[in-house]
Structures are given as C-alpha cells and as structure tokens.
Amino acid sequence: MEFSLEHLQPKERASFALRSLYETAGCRKYHMGRFEEYSLYQENRSFLSSEQVITFTDLDGRLLALKPDVTLSIAKTAQPAPGETLRYYYHENVYRPSAESHTFKEISQMGLELLGAVGEAEVQQAVCLAAQSLAALGAEWVLEVSHMGYLFGLFDALGVPEAARAQLLEKLRQKNAHELRAAALAAGLGETAADALCGVLELSGSYAATLSKAAALCRNPAMTAAVAELTALAPTLGQAGGSIRLDLTLAGEMEYYNGLVFQGYLKALPRPLLKGGRYDLLLQKFTPGAGAIGFAVYLDELDRLTAMPPVQHQDTGKVMLNVALPKGRLGDKVYNLLAGIGYGCPEDYNATRKLVVENPAAGIRYFLVKPSDVAIYVEHGAADVGIVGKDILTEAAADVYELLDTGLGKCRMCVAAPADYKDDPSRPVRVATKFVNIAKSYYASMGRDIDIIKLNGSIELAPILGLSDVIVDIVETGTTLRENGLKVVTEFMPISARFIANKASYQFKHAEMDTMLEKLRAELQNKEEAK
C-alpha cells in the first residue's frame, strides 16, 4: 500500500512539514536527553512557567528532573562563540503541571532557537519562520506581535515602581481596563499616568495602523527603539501571507523576555499554538554578551482540530459569536440587555429545554450553562465570550480576556464570623468556604495560617455549628448574615459581572466582539444615566 501523509494525525504531519521548513532555513537539529540536573531549574526558577518539576534520584545519587523546558537546556549547553550565530531546531517532550487535570502532562514541542550574534537579520528570520510555521499547518492563522521594550520604556517614563510592574503587566495581558487603572493608582501613579497606561489597551489591531499609533506615543529612547525594531520587521511580515496583528498588551514574563514577543493562533484552536520572543537575559546567564530569539510550537494542540463539536460545524453563512450565558437572574438581565441592542433570538430560551439557542441573522448563538461553568466554557474555546461574576472568574483563574465590567450583580467577597468572634493567633484559622483559591490567596497575603473546610452551600451554618471560625463568602445586603448572628469582619474584593473572551477567538472575531462591546457599553451607560 502506498504511504501518504494524509494517513497521519495532524501533529505528525506538522512535524514533517516543520522539520523540512527549519532544515531548509539552515537550522540543525538539537537533540537532548529527557533528564536534567534539578539544580539548573532551582537556580533559574524565574525563567520557568511553573516551579513544580518532577524530580528523582539517579543511581549515582544525583537529583535529576524530567525536563519542564527545552530552551533553558539549550541556553546552558550551546555556548556560541563571539560573533557566531547558532541556528537550532528541536522536537522534544517536556513535562509540566496541567491546571486542567491537576497532574503532570507530557507536552510535545517543536521549536527553533537562534543564539549568539542576533541582530536585525536574525530577528527577521526567526519571526518569518514563525509565520511560515503557522502557514505550513494548513489552516487560517494569526500572528500577534508585541515588544517588551516598549512596555518597559513606558513603565520607566511613568515612574512605575518595580514591585507593581508584574501586576500591571498581568492586567494588560487580560485587557482588563477597569482593574488596570485601579492598580496603577494603587501603585502611586497619578491620574494622567494611569490614563497613559490604560492607553496601551488601544494599541491593538492591524500592524501598520497600530504601529503608527504606538510611534506617536513614544516618551523615551527605549520606546522609540522598540518602535524602530517593529518598523524594520514590517516588510518581512507583510510578505507572510496570513493575518498579522500588533498588540502591545501582549506581554511575556518580565524575567524571560526582554524584546520582541509573539504568539501564533490557528482558527478553531482555543489557545496559542506558537509562543516565542527575544530572551537575551536568559542566554547571558550562560554566555555573557550573547543574544537569543526563538519560539516553540505546541503540537498536541493540533489534536483538537479533529475533535470539533457539531455546533461549530454548522454553516450559517455569517460569523457567529458563541456566548456562554449563565442560567438564572444574571443571565436573564444580560440577555435582555443584549436583545435590546440587536442580539436577541426568535425563541424564548426560558420557555424551552434547549441549551443552545441562536439567531443566524444577528450572528449570535447562546449556550445556557451553570454560572460556575461560564469561565471554563470560554477558556476552552467552547464559547467565544461569556458573562461571569468576578468571584467565579478569580476562583477559576481562567486565562481569558476580561474586556468589560458590566456593573451588574454587584456584591463583595467578605470574611464573616459570629458577632463575638476574636481571632486567636496561636493557631490556624478554620475557614469554611466554597471559594477555596480566593480564601487561600487572601490569607496568604496576610501571612496567616488557615485550615480550609470546603463547602458547597449554606456556608453560614459552619461557624454556628462550630465547624469553622469564620467563613469566606459573597455578601450582597448582609441580611442572611445578620439573621444568623454573623457579622462582616473584612471586605476584600468587589464583585460584579464581567464580559470575558477567549483569547484565540478574539484574534479571529475581534471585529464582532468589539462591535458588541461598543453597543453594550453604550446601553449600560444609558441605563446608568436614566437612574
């Protein structure tokens, strides 16, 4: 029987295509063992996506680890000579903790690294190969580009304290305008500086138009140099053939990336397939004065292309926005708002048992889900956007864009206790809650030991029966607390409904999402003014 690549799985076909691409570009294959001395990761923890590593002791008594990262091993052993540029590609497995399964996961990666003398030509080659990697996978793609130098330059110009930078970068990654401004003010920035920082959220869109906006906002040589590098890259990217977006809210890890950063998306995949950037700081720990740029392609993500759900295959002749709508009062409020601005459906979803209702003419499809599941549906790409309470969003730690605070369903997260409660610092606090991660984070910020008691309902009963000292729960009016002899000890997180989006969906449906957001903001503003 004649062999055909069509008989292979998508990630197997991709590995052949990418290998051919990288070898044609003059890159040599770099092969390494599965194990590395644990001390390498212990000494370079800040460069890892997670500090959790699988370790074991070998027959000689050495503490080894299953590789959680390929780039770190290459950076350690490559050792380019002065003026030399090493070009490597690899096809390796790494082992990282999975937030979804709460176990370690074997992840198949192909990647490319340029190390040593890395100038403009090498940067352009690396980014061009990233775009060609996406094009070789045979589906509609988007390459999103940013520059850490621009963001660091802006931070310096605005006088952002070092201690606040990581949090502000996180808010930028989330496109979280409402909390970015609050965090900037809390960090000691003035109103004007906070406005300038929030202005970065507008630097997202087509490459040429966004680059022009970014150039006009430069405040120092670091920002100007970043714009110059992005400008030099424009002709190369213009010939790439796919969709190239410049989005300066795309921020890599502060300790890892120091210049250009980029991510690649394939249509129908829920998360980036390709990630990369410039990482001189890492390589210079092993080879002083050297530069480096590279990227990794996460081949396992391609398995999802053969597992698309039936609802996503329906051709309506129009781009459809898939909305995860929470069942209950909040969902009803949100649906009425959206229906009022042109996103209604012919059938009343409350009068049917259907869990999917749609209006192809309006380009809208609603999935009716439990409120606690909205963030999961959006993060995993089953829905493009959703409306979810900040409590659920924080507890799930979902990796999504948080595009709008609707102001609906306002309440607050509180610590509550019996009226006569006094804290005993000689022992851990017993905390009853269904928001385990939120409670842990709050008490960790205080340096207080706790014992968590996970409950799913009637949380107020726990301290009454002596099951816990305090509770961490949502409080709206406080009536339930008062009627059960409890009081609010501390309010520590305001809660309201947020409009969230899947990061990959946003790359392909940003025009539709932005239109919906613009109409929703206007409607919410009108209702606020009418009060």
Please characterize this protein's 3D structure.
This protein has 531 residues and is of the alpha+beta class. Helices cover 37% and strands 26% of the residues. The chain has 19 helices and 23 strands. Strands 1-5-6-12-11-10-7-9-8 form a 9-stranded mixed β-sheet, with helices on both faces. A 6-stranded mixed β-sheet has the order 14-15-13-16-23-17. Helix 9 packs antiparallel against helix 10. The longest helix has 28 residues, at 503-530. It starts with 9 loop residues before the first helix and ends with a helix.
The value of Rg in angstroms is 25 Å
**Coarse shape:** globular
Helix content: 25-40%
SS strand fraction = 25-35%
Specify the biggest β-sheet.
9 strands, mixed
| Average pLDDT over all residues | 91
- Termini gap: 74 Å
Instruction: List the strand order in the largest sheet.
Output: 1-5-6-12-11-10-7-9-8
The low-confidence runs, each spanning 5 or more residues with pLDDT under 50, are: none
Structural class comes to alpha+beta
